[in-house]
């Protein structure tokens, strides 16, 4: 399935399955999709779209080098989730909690060395809660990340161009596809009025 992601209101008013996606978003395998972004605005739109469909307990691992756009993606994601306050990189506090339903936990593990440091922050406890978690620099916690986390890899292709790869286990990607197919605030995946 492919879908054009260039209009925020269109994204929020229609589910993924109501129209085929166009060439910007493509399925690479059963467990990975890729999105070509030509601008920060397009990256924000994708992030907002995903945030608007996030569910309690979702964990997103944001990968990419310095300046790739992880915090920009986090801003768009938070906006889609409905968070009104400004979102900045929590490099120094390491964990920033946004009071919302569900709560958003934005983590930046850049200054940590390894999973032992991550455990000391209490981050692992938040992952098992009912919030939505975004983790920048997840490689610092690779050996303790839950296996069902959704990985978002942002690759720099030019000054404003990015390739955004979304991947997870095949089973988790099937659930994610259902999440993205529903309208914001709509039924949870796996539920039906039928």
Automatic annotation (TrEMBL):
Give compartment(s): Cytoplasm
**Gene3D superfamilies (alphabetical):** P-loop containing nucleotide triphosphate hydrolases
- List the record's Gene Ontology CC terms alphabetically: cytoplasm
The name this protein carries in UniProt is: tRNA threonylcarbamoyladenosine biosynthesis protein TsaE
| Keyword annotations of the record | ATP-binding, Cytoplasm, Magnesium, Metal-binding, Nucleotide-binding, tRNA processing
Write out the similarity annotation. Belongs to the TsaE family.
Return one Gene Ontology term, BP aspect: tRNA threonylcarbamoyladenosine modification
Q: Cite the InterPro entries for this sequence.
A: P-loop_NTPase (IPR027417), T6A_TsaE (IPR003442)
UniProt-listed Pfam families: TsaE
One GO term in the molecular function aspect is: metal ion binding
């Amino acid at each position: 399935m492919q879908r054009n992601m260039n209009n925020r209101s269109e994204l929020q008013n229609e589910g993924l399955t109501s129209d085929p996606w166009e060439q910007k978003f493509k399925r690479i395998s059963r467990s990975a999709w890729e999105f070509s972004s030509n601008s920060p605005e397009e990256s924000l739109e994708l992030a907002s779209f995903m945030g608007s469909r996030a569910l309690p307990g979702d964990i997103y691992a944001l990968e990419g080098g310095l300046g790739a756009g992880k915090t920009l993606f986090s801003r768009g994601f938070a906006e889609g989730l409905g968070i009104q306050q400004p979102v900045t990189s929590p490099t120094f506090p390491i964990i920033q909690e946004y009071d919302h339903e569900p709560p958003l936990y934005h983590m930046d593990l850049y200054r940590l060395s390894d999973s032992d440091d991550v455990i000391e922050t209490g981050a692992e406890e938040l992952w098992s809660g009912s919030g939505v978690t975004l983790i920048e620099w997840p490689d610092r916690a690779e050996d303790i990340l839950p296996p069902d986390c959704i990985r978002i890899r942002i690759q720099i292709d030019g000054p404003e161009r990015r390739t955004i790869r979304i991947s997870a286990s095949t089973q988790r990607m099937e659930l994610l596809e259902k999440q993205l197919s529903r309208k914001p605030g709509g039924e949870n995946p796996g539920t039906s009025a039928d």
